[in-house]
Amino acid sequence: MKIVFIGAIWCPSCLLMKSRIRKLIASGASAQLVEYDFDNDLEAIEKYEVGSILPVIVFEQDGIETSRIVGEESLRRLKEVVEGRI
After folding, report:
1. For the chain, how big is the Rg over CA atoms in Å?
2. What is the C-alpha separation between 32 and 53, in angstroms, rounded?
3. What are residue 36's DSSP bridge partners?
4. What is the reported pLDDT for 84?
5. Minimal CA–CA distance to 33: which of 70, 7, 72, 11?
6. Over its length of 86 residues, how does the chain's per-residue pLDDT go in tens digits?
7. C-alpha span between 27 and 25 (Å, rounded)
8. Contact indicator for 54, 12 with CB cutoff of 8 Å
């Protein structure tokens, strides 16, 4: 699974969620993390159709979006998405 994290350095929710995603991966979750900055990577994130709420976390399997989280969410919910329970 690939986790695409789109956030910004000025966004408190982004910092919180980035920490949670890193904890998830450190705990052994089988996922590759790709990070984009909302302000600096506009061309790269264009295909994800990011709205005005950050962060946006896109979960992909074989290049296909399987799930998306916008804003803050619990570590438990992140685990559920990665494990395919949601």
Report:
1. 12
2. 23
3. 6
4. 81
5. 7
6. 999 999 999 999 999 999 999 999 999 888 899 999 999 999 999 999 999 999 999 999 999 999 999 999 999 999 999 888 65
7. 5
8. no
| pLDDT on residue 9 | 95
- CA–CA gap between residue 82 and residue 86 (Å, rounded): 8
Instruction: Give per-residue burial for 29-64: e unless 16+ CB within 10 Å, then b.
Output: bebeeeebebeeeeeebeeeebeeebbbbbbbeeee
CA-nearest of 27, 10, 40, 1 to 57 is: 1
Q: What is the reported pTM? A: 0.91
- Provide the residue type at 9 as one letter: I
Task: Specify the fold of 2-82.
Answer: Glutaredoxin (3.40.30)
Q: Domain ranges in the chain?
A: 2-82
What does the alpha-carbon distance between residue 20 and residue 29 come to, in Å, rounded to a whole number?
12
